[in-house]
Design brief:
The complex is a heterodimer of chains A (297) and B (228). Chain A is of the alpha+beta class and 297 residues long. Chain A folds into 2 domains: 184 residues, no CATH class; 89 residues, Alpha-Beta Plaits. Helix content of chain A is 74%, strand content 8%. The chains are: A alpha+beta (297), B alpha/beta (228). The structure holds adenosine-5'-diphosphate and magnesium ion.
Chain lengths: 297, 228
Protein backbone atom coordinates (compact mmCIF):
# COMPACT_ATOMS: atom_id res chain seq x y z
CA UNK A 1 0.00 0.00 0.00
CA UNK A 2 1.20 3.53 -0.71
CA UNK A 3 2.84 5.32 2.21
CA UNK A 4 0.50 8.33 1.91
CA UNK A 5 -2.49 6.01 2.11
CA UNK A 6 -1.13 4.56 5.33
CA UNK A 7 -0.48 7.95 6.84
CA UNK A 8 -3.98 9.03 5.91
CA UNK A 9 -5.40 5.95 7.65
CA UNK A 10 -3.24 6.64 10.69
CA UNK A 11 -4.32 10.28 10.98
CA UNK A 12 -7.92 9.28 10.51
CA UNK A 13 -7.69 6.67 13.22
CA UNK A 14 -5.86 8.93 15.67
CA UNK A 15 -8.47 11.66 15.25
CA UNK A 16 -11.25 9.13 15.71
CA UNK A 17 -9.53 7.95 18.88
CA UNK A 18 -9.36 11.50 20.20
CA UNK A 19 -13.09 11.98 19.74
CA UNK A 20 -13.88 8.52 21.12
CA UNK A 21 -11.71 9.24 24.16
CA UNK A 22 -13.63 12.41 24.88
CA UNK A 23 -17.00 10.76 24.48
CA UNK A 24 -15.95 7.78 26.58
CA UNK A 25 -14.79 9.94 29.48
CA UNK A 26 -17.37 12.73 29.45
CA UNK A 27 -16.67 13.60 33.07
CA UNK A 28 -13.05 14.40 32.34
CA UNK A 29 -14.02 16.42 29.27
CA UNK A 30 -16.58 18.30 31.32
CA UNK A 31 -14.00 19.18 33.97
CA UNK A 32 -11.49 20.45 31.45
CA UNK A 33 -14.05 22.43 29.46
CA UNK A 34 -15.66 24.03 32.51
CA UNK A 35 -12.29 24.92 34.06
CA UNK A 36 -11.18 26.53 30.83
CA UNK A 37 -14.54 28.23 30.41
CA UNK A 38 -14.37 29.81 33.86
CA UNK A 39 -10.84 31.04 33.28
CA UNK A 40 -11.61 32.33 29.79
CA UNK A 41 -14.80 34.10 30.85
CA UNK A 42 -12.96 35.76 33.74
CA UNK A 43 -10.41 36.91 31.21
CA UNK A 44 -13.23 38.03 28.92
CA UNK A 45 -14.93 40.03 31.68
CA UNK A 46 -11.66 41.68 32.50
CA UNK A 47 -11.07 42.64 28.87
CA UNK A 48 -14.62 43.89 28.55
CA UNK A 49 -14.25 45.94 31.71
CA UNK A 50 -11.02 47.44 30.41
CA UNK A 51 -12.59 48.22 27.08
CA UNK A 52 -15.62 49.83 28.76
CA UNK A 53 -13.50 51.89 31.14
CA UNK A 54 -11.38 52.96 28.23
CA UNK A 55 -14.49 54.01 26.37
CA UNK A 56 -15.81 55.96 29.36
CA UNK A 57 -12.58 57.82 29.92
CA UNK A 58 -12.22 58.56 26.19
CA UNK A 59 -15.73 59.94 26.21
CA UNK A 60 -15.04 62.02 29.29
CA UNK A 61 -11.80 63.35 27.89
CA UNK A 62 -13.33 64.49 24.60
CA UNK A 63 -15.69 66.53 26.72
CA UNK A 64 -12.58 68.26 28.06
CA UNK A 65 -11.74 71.03 25.68
CA UNK A 66 -9.28 73.86 25.45
CA UNK A 67 -11.10 77.17 25.09
CA UNK A 68 -9.12 79.84 23.26
CA UNK A 69 -10.26 83.50 23.45
CA UNK A 70 -9.12 85.73 20.63
CA UNK A 71 -7.90 89.31 20.79
CA UNK A 72 -10.13 91.83 19.04
CA UNK A 73 -10.00 92.11 15.28
CA UNK A 74 -8.29 88.76 14.75
CA UNK A 75 -9.01 86.53 11.76
CA UNK A 76 -10.75 83.59 13.39
CA UNK A 77 -10.43 81.35 10.35
CA UNK A 78 -6.69 81.84 10.08
CA UNK A 79 -6.11 81.16 13.77
CA UNK A 80 -8.37 78.13 13.64
CA UNK A 81 -6.38 76.57 10.81
CA UNK A 82 -3.12 77.48 12.63
CA UNK A 83 -4.39 75.64 15.71
CA UNK A 84 -5.57 72.68 13.69
CA UNK A 85 -2.04 72.30 12.37
CA UNK A 86 -0.65 71.77 15.88
CA UNK A 87 0.16 68.10 16.39
CA UNK A 88 -2.17 66.45 18.90
CA UNK A 89 -5.12 68.65 18.05
CA UNK A 90 -8.20 66.75 16.97
CA UNK A 91 -9.79 68.59 14.04
CA UNK A 92 -12.13 70.24 13.43
CA UNK A 93 -11.64 73.15 15.78
CA UNK A 94 -14.97 74.69 16.63
CA UNK A 95 -15.19 78.42 15.84
CA UNK A 96 -17.41 80.79 17.79
CA UNK A 97 -17.51 84.28 16.35
CA UNK A 98 -18.26 87.35 18.45
CA UNK A 99 -21.79 87.45 17.00
CA UNK A 100 -22.40 83.82 17.83
CA UNK A 101 -21.12 84.38 21.36
CA UNK A 102 -23.43 87.37 21.78
CA UNK A 103 -26.33 85.36 20.37
CA UNK A 104 -25.88 82.45 22.68
CA UNK A 105 -25.34 84.58 25.78
CA UNK A 106 -28.38 86.78 25.15
CA UNK A 107 -30.49 83.75 24.32
CA UNK A 108 -29.80 82.47 27.80
CA UNK A 109 -30.33 85.87 29.44
CA UNK A 110 -32.51 88.10 27.24
CA UNK A 111 -32.31 91.04 29.70
CA UNK A 112 -28.63 91.41 28.78
CA UNK A 113 -29.66 92.61 25.35
CA UNK A 114 -31.02 95.82 26.82
CA UNK A 115 -28.10 96.38 29.18
CA UNK A 116 -25.38 95.98 26.59
CA UNK A 117 -24.97 98.48 23.84
CA UNK A 118 -21.80 96.98 22.35
CA UNK A 119 -20.94 93.32 22.02
CA UNK A 120 -18.38 92.67 24.81
CA UNK A 121 -17.88 89.00 24.04
CA UNK A 122 -14.66 87.88 22.35
CA UNK A 123 -14.54 85.35 19.56
CA UNK A 124 -13.28 81.95 20.69
CA UNK A 125 -12.17 78.47 19.57
CA UNK A 126 -13.00 75.16 21.17
CA UNK A 127 -10.14 72.75 20.69
CA UNK A 128 -10.33 68.99 21.32
CA UNK A 129 -7.15 66.92 21.67
CA UNK A 130 -6.45 63.36 20.58
CA UNK A 131 -5.06 62.38 23.92
CA UNK A 132 -5.62 64.05 27.24
CA UNK A 133 -1.93 63.53 27.98
CA UNK A 134 -1.13 66.16 25.31
CA UNK A 135 -3.50 68.75 26.67
CA UNK A 136 -0.96 70.80 28.65
CA UNK A 137 1.53 70.82 25.80
CA UNK A 138 -1.06 71.77 23.19
CA UNK A 139 -2.43 74.45 25.52
CA UNK A 140 0.94 76.11 25.96
CA UNK A 141 1.60 76.03 22.26
CA UNK A 142 -1.71 77.70 21.49
CA UNK A 143 -1.03 80.36 24.10
CA UNK A 144 2.11 81.40 22.19
CA UNK A 145 0.22 82.02 18.93
CA UNK A 146 -0.16 85.68 18.00
CA UNK A 147 -3.67 86.98 18.44
CA UNK A 148 -4.51 84.73 21.37
CA UNK A 149 -5.85 86.65 24.34
CA UNK A 150 -6.38 83.79 26.76
CA UNK A 151 -6.39 79.99 26.94
CA UNK A 152 -8.57 78.12 29.38
CA UNK A 153 -8.36 74.47 30.21
CA UNK A 154 -8.01 72.15 33.16
CA UNK A 155 -4.70 70.34 32.83
CA UNK A 156 -4.97 68.68 36.24
CA UNK A 157 -8.30 67.04 35.49
CA UNK A 158 -7.02 65.86 32.14
CA UNK A 159 -3.89 64.50 33.72
CA UNK A 160 -5.79 62.71 36.45
CA UNK A 161 -8.07 61.10 33.95
CA UNK A 162 -5.05 59.97 31.96
CA UNK A 163 -3.42 58.56 35.08
CA UNK A 164 -6.51 56.62 36.00
CA UNK A 165 -6.66 55.26 32.46
CA UNK A 166 -3.00 54.21 32.55
CA UNK A 167 -3.38 52.65 35.97
CA UNK A 168 -6.43 50.65 34.98
CA UNK A 169 -4.66 49.40 31.87
CA UNK A 170 -1.55 48.36 33.78
CA UNK A 171 -3.43 46.54 36.54
CA UNK A 172 -5.69 44.96 33.92
CA UNK A 173 -2.77 43.64 31.85
CA UNK A 174 -1.08 42.22 34.93
CA UNK A 175 -4.24 40.44 36.02
CA UNK A 176 -4.81 39.17 32.47
CA UNK A 177 -1.25 37.84 32.33
CA UNK A 178 -1.58 36.05 35.66
CA UNK A 179 -4.93 34.66 34.58
CA UNK A 180 -3.54 33.27 31.33
CA UNK A 181 -0.61 31.62 33.12
CA UNK A 182 -2.83 30.19 35.84
CA UNK A 183 -5.27 28.83 33.27
CA UNK A 184 -2.44 27.28 31.29
CA UNK A 185 -1.23 25.54 34.44
CA UNK A 186 -4.73 24.26 35.12
CA UNK A 187 -5.11 23.04 31.55
CA UNK A 188 -1.74 21.30 31.59
CA UNK A 189 -2.59 19.54 34.82
CA UNK A 190 -6.11 18.59 33.83
CA UNK A 191 -5.04 17.19 30.47
CA UNK A 192 -2.30 15.42 32.37
CA UNK A 193 -5.08 13.68 34.26
CA UNK A 194 -6.70 12.75 30.96
CA UNK A 195 -3.37 11.48 29.65
CA UNK A 196 -2.82 9.52 32.83
CA UNK A 197 -6.28 8.05 32.59
CA UNK A 198 -5.19 6.62 29.26
CA UNK A 199 -1.77 5.44 30.35
CA UNK A 200 -2.65 1.86 29.53
CA UNK A 201 -3.60 2.74 25.99
CA UNK A 202 -0.43 4.78 25.59
CA UNK A 203 1.63 1.91 27.00
CA UNK A 204 0.18 -0.49 24.45
CA UNK A 205 0.62 2.00 21.62
CA UNK A 206 4.27 2.29 22.56
CA UNK A 207 4.66 -1.48 22.80
CA UNK A 208 3.26 -2.14 19.35
CA UNK A 209 5.43 0.59 17.87
CA UNK A 210 3.18 3.61 17.42
CA UNK A 211 5.16 6.64 16.26
CA UNK A 212 5.23 9.47 18.78
CA UNK A 213 3.14 11.82 16.65
CA UNK A 214 0.45 9.16 16.50
CA UNK A 215 0.33 8.99 20.29
CA UNK A 216 0.16 12.78 20.54
CA UNK A 217 -2.39 13.51 17.86
CA UNK A 218 -5.54 12.44 19.75
CA UNK A 219 -4.57 14.59 22.72
CA UNK A 220 -3.80 17.56 20.51
CA UNK A 221 -7.21 17.20 18.93
CA UNK A 222 -8.80 17.03 22.36
CA UNK A 223 -6.93 20.15 23.45
CA UNK A 224 -8.10 21.92 20.31
CA UNK A 225 -11.73 20.92 20.85
CA UNK A 226 -11.59 21.82 24.54
CA UNK A 227 -10.22 25.24 23.57
CA UNK A 228 -12.90 25.86 20.96
CA UNK A 229 -15.79 24.70 23.14
CA UNK A 230 -14.74 26.55 26.26
CA UNK A 231 -14.05 29.83 24.46
CA UNK A 232 -17.39 29.71 22.67
CA UNK A 233 -19.16 29.08 25.99
CA UNK A 234 -17.20 31.88 27.65
CA UNK A 235 -18.14 34.27 24.82
CA UNK A 236 -21.80 33.31 25.10
CA UNK A 237 -21.61 34.07 28.80
CA UNK A 238 -20.28 37.53 27.99
CA UNK A 239 -23.04 38.17 25.46
CA UNK A 240 -25.61 37.07 28.01
CA UNK A 241 -24.13 39.44 30.57
CA UNK A 242 -24.19 42.26 28.07
CA UNK A 243 -27.80 41.63 27.14
CA UNK A 244 -29.34 41.33 30.59
CA UNK A 245 -27.63 42.67 33.76
CA UNK A 246 -25.52 45.19 31.91
CA UNK A 247 -28.47 47.11 30.52
CA UNK A 248 -29.71 47.42 34.08
CA UNK A 249 -26.34 48.87 35.06
CA UNK A 250 -26.62 51.35 32.21
CA UNK A 251 -29.93 52.56 33.62
CA UNK A 252 -28.47 52.98 37.11
CA UNK A 253 -25.34 54.75 35.95
CA UNK A 254 -27.02 56.83 33.27
CA UNK A 255 -24.67 59.75 34.06
CA UNK A 256 -21.69 57.70 32.80
CA UNK A 257 -21.19 57.40 29.06
CA UNK A 258 -21.26 53.55 29.14
CA UNK A 259 -20.93 52.06 25.66
CA UNK A 260 -23.94 50.12 24.53
CA UNK A 261 -22.83 48.31 21.42
CA UNK A 262 -22.01 44.61 21.33
CA UNK A 263 -19.03 45.47 19.13
CA UNK A 264 -16.27 44.97 21.72
CA UNK A 265 -17.59 41.43 22.22
CA UNK A 266 -16.69 40.50 18.65
CA UNK A 267 -13.01 41.21 19.14
CA UNK A 268 -13.00 39.90 22.71
CA UNK A 269 -14.72 36.72 21.53
CA UNK A 270 -12.12 36.29 18.78
CA UNK A 271 -9.38 36.87 21.33
CA UNK A 272 -10.87 34.31 23.70
CA UNK A 273 -11.13 31.78 20.86
CA UNK A 274 -7.50 32.34 19.96
CA UNK A 275 -6.40 32.14 23.60
CA UNK A 276 -8.53 29.05 24.23
CA UNK A 277 -7.25 27.17 21.18
CA UNK A 278 -3.68 28.13 21.96
CA UNK A 279 -4.02 27.10 25.59
CA UNK A 280 -5.67 23.81 24.64
CA UNK A 281 -2.96 22.93 22.12
CA UNK A 282 -0.12 24.11 24.32
CA UNK A 283 -1.59 22.44 27.40
CA UNK A 284 -1.94 19.06 25.74
CA UNK A 285 1.47 19.31 24.06
CA UNK A 286 3.15 20.06 27.37
CA UNK A 287 1.37 17.35 29.31
CA UNK A 288 1.85 14.61 26.70
CA UNK A 289 5.46 15.66 26.32
CA UNK A 290 6.00 15.50 30.07
CA UNK A 291 4.40 12.08 30.13
CA UNK A 292 6.29 10.60 27.17
CA UNK A 293 9.62 12.02 28.30
CA UNK A 294 9.43 9.74 31.29
CA UNK A 295 8.52 6.77 29.14
CA UNK A 296 10.72 6.81 26.04
CA UNK A 297 14.43 6.18 26.64
CA UNK B 1 19.98 -12.69 14.38
CA UNK B 2 20.02 -11.65 18.06
CA UNK B 3 23.39 -11.10 19.69
CA UNK B 4 24.46 -9.74 23.07
CA UNK B 5 28.09 -8.61 23.25
CA UNK B 6 29.45 -7.94 26.76
CA UNK B 7 26.15 -6.49 27.90
CA UNK B 8 25.73 -5.17 31.43
CA UNK B 9 22.77 -3.36 32.89
CA UNK B 10 22.90 -1.35 36.03
CA UNK B 11 19.73 0.48 37.14
CA UNK B 12 19.97 4.01 38.48
CA UNK B 13 19.73 2.66 42.04
CA UNK B 14 22.97 0.72 41.36
CA UNK B 15 21.23 -2.67 41.13
CA UNK B 16 23.31 -4.76 38.74
CA UNK B 17 20.54 -6.60 36.91
CA UNK B 18 22.76 -8.10 34.18
CA UNK B 19 26.51 -8.62 34.12
CA UNK B 20 28.63 -9.24 31.07
CA UNK B 21 26.09 -11.16 29.01
CA UNK B 22 27.30 -12.78 25.77
CA UNK B 23 24.63 -14.58 23.87
CA UNK B 24 23.68 -15.56 20.36
CA UNK B 25 20.18 -16.57 19.34
CA UNK B 26 19.73 -17.76 15.74
CA UNK B 27 16.86 -16.57 13.58
CA UNK B 28 13.77 -18.74 13.76
CA UNK B 29 14.82 -20.49 16.97
CA UNK B 30 12.85 -21.01 20.18
CA UNK B 31 14.60 -20.18 23.47
CA UNK B 32 13.57 -20.40 27.11
CA UNK B 33 14.94 -17.97 29.64
CA UNK B 34 14.79 -19.36 33.16
CA UNK B 35 16.03 -18.37 36.59
CA UNK B 36 14.75 -17.37 39.99
CA UNK B 37 12.88 -14.16 40.59
CA UNK B 38 15.22 -11.18 40.35
CA UNK B 39 17.78 -13.01 38.20
CA UNK B 40 17.39 -10.55 35.31
CA UNK B 41 14.99 -12.25 32.88
CA UNK B 42 12.68 -9.28 32.47
CA UNK B 43 15.61 -6.92 32.16
CA UNK B 44 17.08 -8.97 29.33
CA UNK B 45 13.76 -8.90 27.49
CA UNK B 46 13.30 -5.16 28.10
CA UNK B 47 16.71 -4.54 26.56
CA UNK B 48 15.53 -6.35 23.43
CA UNK B 49 12.63 -4.01 22.71
CA UNK B 50 14.49 -0.93 23.95
CA UNK B 51 12.35 -0.38 27.02
CA UNK B 52 15.70 -0.11 28.80
CA UNK B 53 19.13 0.83 27.55
CA UNK B 54 22.19 -1.27 28.40
CA UNK B 55 24.83 0.33 30.57
CA UNK B 56 27.57 -1.40 28.58
CA UNK B 57 27.86 -3.55 25.49
CA UNK B 58 26.12 -4.03 22.16
CA UNK B 59 22.78 -5.65 21.41
CA UNK B 60 22.23 -6.68 17.82
CA UNK B 61 18.72 -7.29 16.56
CA UNK B 62 17.92 -7.67 12.84
CA UNK B 63 21.45 -6.54 11.91
CA UNK B 64 21.29 -3.34 13.94
CA UNK B 65 22.95 -2.44 17.21
CA UNK B 66 19.75 -1.27 18.87
CA UNK B 67 21.68 0.62 21.53
CA UNK B 68 22.34 3.21 18.84
CA UNK B 69 18.75 3.59 17.68
CA UNK B 70 17.37 7.11 17.74
CA UNK B 71 14.09 7.80 19.52
CA UNK B 72 12.52 8.01 16.11
CA UNK B 73 13.63 4.48 15.21
CA UNK B 74 12.47 2.81 18.43
CA UNK B 75 8.86 2.46 17.16
CA UNK B 76 10.19 0.73 14.02
CA UNK B 77 12.08 -1.80 16.17
CA UNK B 78 8.91 -2.42 18.15
CA UNK B 79 6.87 -3.01 15.03
CA UNK B 80 9.27 -5.87 14.32
CA UNK B 81 9.22 -7.21 17.86
CA UNK B 82 5.99 -8.60 19.31
CA UNK B 83 5.77 -8.64 23.12
CA UNK B 84 3.56 -10.65 25.46
CA UNK B 85 3.32 -10.19 29.24
CA UNK B 86 2.03 -11.97 32.28
CA UNK B 87 -0.76 -9.39 32.70
CA UNK B 88 -2.00 -9.49 29.05
CA UNK B 89 -2.24 -5.69 28.74
CA UNK B 90 -5.55 -5.68 26.88
CA UNK B 91 -7.78 -2.63 26.53
CA UNK B 92 -10.90 -3.40 28.54
CA UNK B 93 -13.22 -1.16 26.54
CA UNK B 94 -12.27 -2.76 23.23
CA UNK B 95 -13.49 -6.10 21.92
CA UNK B 96 -11.11 -8.95 21.06
CA UNK B 97 -11.16 -7.96 17.41
CA UNK B 98 -10.56 -4.28 18.22
CA UNK B 99 -7.72 -5.12 20.57
CA UNK B 100 -5.93 -6.97 17.80
CA UNK B 101 -6.87 -4.35 15.20
CA UNK B 102 -5.31 -1.69 17.40
CA UNK B 103 -1.81 -2.89 16.48
CA UNK B 104 -2.65 -2.52 12.78
CA UNK B 105 -4.56 0.75 13.03
CA UNK B 106 -1.53 2.54 14.40
CA UNK B 107 0.40 1.41 11.35
CA UNK B 108 -2.29 2.65 8.99
CA UNK B 109 -3.16 -0.75 7.55
CA UNK B 110 -6.32 -0.59 5.42
CA UNK B 111 -9.56 -2.13 6.72
CA UNK B 112 -9.54 -4.82 4.02
CA UNK B 113 -6.02 -5.89 4.83
CA UNK B 114 -6.84 -5.74 8.55
CA UNK B 115 -9.79 -8.08 8.18
CA UNK B 116 -7.67 -10.62 6.32
CA UNK B 117 -4.82 -10.53 8.82
CA UNK B 118 -6.92 -10.48 12.00
CA UNK B 119 -9.05 -13.34 10.72
CA UNK B 120 -5.89 -15.36 10.09
CA UNK B 121 -4.29 -14.62 13.41
CA UNK B 122 -7.46 -15.31 15.42
CA UNK B 123 -7.73 -18.66 13.65
CA UNK B 124 -4.11 -19.44 14.47
CA UNK B 125 -4.64 -18.62 18.14
CA UNK B 126 -8.00 -20.41 18.16
CA UNK B 127 -10.16 -17.53 19.34
CA UNK B 128 -12.01 -16.49 16.20
CA UNK B 129 -15.30 -17.45 17.86
CA UNK B 130 -14.55 -14.92 20.64
CA UNK B 131 -13.93 -11.96 18.36
CA UNK B 132 -16.84 -9.87 19.66
CA UNK B 133 -16.22 -10.58 23.34
CA UNK B 134 -14.67 -8.09 25.74
CA UNK B 135 -11.64 -9.04 27.85
CA UNK B 136 -13.64 -9.23 31.11
CA UNK B 137 -15.83 -11.91 29.51
CA UNK B 138 -12.81 -14.16 28.83
CA UNK B 139 -10.76 -16.60 30.88
CA UNK B 140 -7.07 -15.88 31.57
CA UNK B 141 -5.95 -18.32 28.91
CA UNK B 142 -8.26 -16.77 26.33
CA UNK B 143 -7.04 -13.28 27.23
CA UNK B 144 -3.45 -14.39 26.80
CA UNK B 145 -4.33 -15.75 23.37
CA UNK B 146 -5.69 -12.33 22.41
CA UNK B 147 -2.50 -10.74 23.60
CA UNK B 148 -0.43 -13.23 21.56
CA UNK B 149 -2.64 -12.57 18.53
CA UNK B 150 -2.02 -8.83 18.87
CA UNK B 151 1.72 -9.40 19.23
CA UNK B 152 1.99 -11.39 16.00
CA UNK B 153 -0.66 -9.79 13.79
CA UNK B 154 1.95 -7.49 12.28
CA UNK B 155 4.09 -10.58 11.43
CA UNK B 156 7.12 -9.53 13.50
CA UNK B 157 10.30 -11.57 12.99
CA UNK B 158 10.81 -11.61 16.79
CA UNK B 159 8.34 -12.57 19.54
CA UNK B 160 9.23 -11.91 23.19
CA UNK B 161 7.15 -13.32 26.03
CA UNK B 162 7.91 -12.37 29.64
CA UNK B 163 6.37 -14.96 31.99
CA UNK B 164 3.37 -15.42 29.68
CA UNK B 165 1.95 -18.20 31.88
CA UNK B 166 2.61 -16.55 35.22
CA UNK B 167 -1.11 -16.02 35.87
CA UNK B 168 -2.42 -19.26 34.38
CA UNK B 169 -3.18 -22.73 35.67
CA UNK B 170 -0.97 -25.63 34.46
CA UNK B 171 -3.28 -26.90 31.73
CA UNK B 172 -3.87 -23.46 30.29
CA UNK B 173 -0.15 -22.70 30.57
CA UNK B 174 0.62 -25.77 28.54
CA UNK B 175 -1.82 -24.66 25.82
CA UNK B 176 -0.19 -21.22 25.65
CA UNK B 177 3.29 -22.78 25.46
CA UNK B 178 2.15 -25.00 22.61
CA UNK B 179 0.79 -21.93 20.84
CA UNK B 180 4.11 -20.07 21.24
CA UNK B 181 5.96 -23.12 20.00
CA UNK B 182 3.65 -23.31 16.97
CA UNK B 183 4.44 -19.66 16.20
CA UNK B 184 8.14 -20.51 16.52
CA UNK B 185 7.73 -23.10 13.80
CA UNK B 186 6.57 -20.43 11.33
CA UNK B 187 10.06 -18.89 11.29
CA UNK B 188 9.58 -16.36 14.08
CA UNK B 189 12.39 -16.07 16.64
CA UNK B 190 10.69 -16.73 19.98
CA UNK B 191 12.14 -15.97 23.43
CA UNK B 192 10.07 -16.98 26.46
CA UNK B 193 10.98 -16.25 30.06
CA UNK B 194 9.47 -18.41 32.78
CA UNK B 195 10.14 -19.92 36.14
CA UNK B 196 7.80 -22.80 35.40
CA UNK B 197 10.42 -25.56 35.20
CA UNK B 198 7.98 -28.42 34.60
CA UNK B 199 6.90 -26.68 31.41
CA UNK B 200 10.50 -26.29 30.32
CA UNK B 201 11.06 -29.97 31.12
CA UNK B 202 8.24 -30.97 28.87
CA UNK B 203 9.23 -28.77 25.95
CA UNK B 204 12.91 -29.74 25.70
CA UNK B 205 13.94 -26.54 23.91
CA UNK B 206 17.10 -24.50 24.20
CA UNK B 207 17.19 -23.06 27.71
CA UNK B 208 19.32 -20.25 29.09
CA UNK B 209 19.54 -20.06 32.85
CA UNK B 210 20.21 -16.76 34.63
CA UNK B 211 21.26 -16.26 38.22
CA UNK B 212 22.20 -12.94 39.79
CA UNK B 213 22.36 -11.33 36.36
CA UNK B 214 24.75 -13.87 34.89
CA UNK B 215 24.25 -16.75 32.47
CA UNK B 216 24.95 -19.87 34.52
CA UNK B 217 23.81 -22.44 31.98
CA UNK B 218 22.99 -22.63 28.26
CA UNK B 219 21.40 -25.99 27.55
CA UNK B 220 20.88 -26.90 23.88
CA UNK B 221 17.60 -28.20 22.53
CA UNK B 222 16.63 -31.62 23.83
CA UNK B 223 19.16 -31.71 26.66
CA UNK B 224 17.29 -29.95 29.50
CA UNK B 225 16.27 -31.89 32.57
CA UNK B 226 15.10 -30.20 35.71
CA UNK B 227 17.96 -29.39 38.04
CA UNK B 228 20.70 -29.23 35.46
N1 LIG C 1 13.37 -0.36 37.07
C1 LIG C 1 14.21 -0.92 37.96
N2 LIG C 1 14.92 -0.13 38.78
C2 LIG C 1 15.77 -0.68 39.67
N3 LIG C 1 16.00 -1.97 39.81
C3 LIG C 1 15.32 -2.81 39.02
C4 LIG C 1 14.38 -2.33 38.06
N4 LIG C 1 13.86 -3.39 37.41
C5 LIG C 1 14.43 -4.48 37.94
N5 LIG C 1 15.31 -4.15 38.90
C6 LIG C 1 16.16 -5.07 39.68
O1 LIG C 1 16.97 -5.78 38.76
C7 LIG C 1 17.09 -7.12 39.15
C8 LIG C 1 16.58 -8.03 38.03
O2 LIG C 1 15.20 -7.84 37.88
P1 LIG C 1 14.31 -8.51 36.75
O3 LIG C 1 15.00 -8.32 35.45
O4 LIG C 1 12.94 -8.01 36.86
O5 LIG C 1 14.38 -10.03 37.17
P2 LIG C 1 13.34 -11.21 36.88
O6 LIG C 1 12.49 -10.82 35.75
O7 LIG C 1 14.23 -12.38 36.56
O8 LIG C 1 12.59 -11.43 38.12
C9 LIG C 1 16.30 -7.27 40.43
O9 LIG C 1 17.21 -7.15 41.50
C10 LIG C 1 15.36 -6.12 40.40
O10 LIG C 1 15.06 -5.70 41.71
MG1 LIG D 1 10.40 -10.69 35.61
Amino acid sequence: MAAEGRTFHQINYALGQGIQNMVRSPFMSLIVISTMMIALSTLGFLLLLLSDLNHVSEELSTQLKIVVFLEDQQDINKLASDVEAIPGVKPPVKKITREEAFESMTREQPELKELLKDNPFPASLEVAVNSTADMAKVGTEIRQKPGVEEVQFNPELAEQLQQVQNGVQLVGSIIAGILILATLAIVVNTIQLAVHQRHKEIEIMRLVGAPQWFIRLPFLLEGLIFGIFSSILASLLLVLWRLVPYSQLQRWFAFLPLPDSLMPLVSIGALLLGTGVLMGLLGSTVSVHRYLKLEYK
Amino acid sequence: MIRFVNVSKQYSNHTRALQNINLEIPAGSFTFLVGPSGSGKSTLIKLLYREELATEGEIWVLDKNIENLSKHDVPILRQQTGVVFQDFKLLTQKSVWENVAFALEILGVSKQEQTKRIQGVLELTNILHLKDFYPRQLSGGEQQRVSVARAIVNKPPVLLADEPTGNLDPNTSWEIMKLLSKIGKTGTTVIVSTHNYSMVDRMKRRTIKLEGGKIVADIPEGAWTHGS
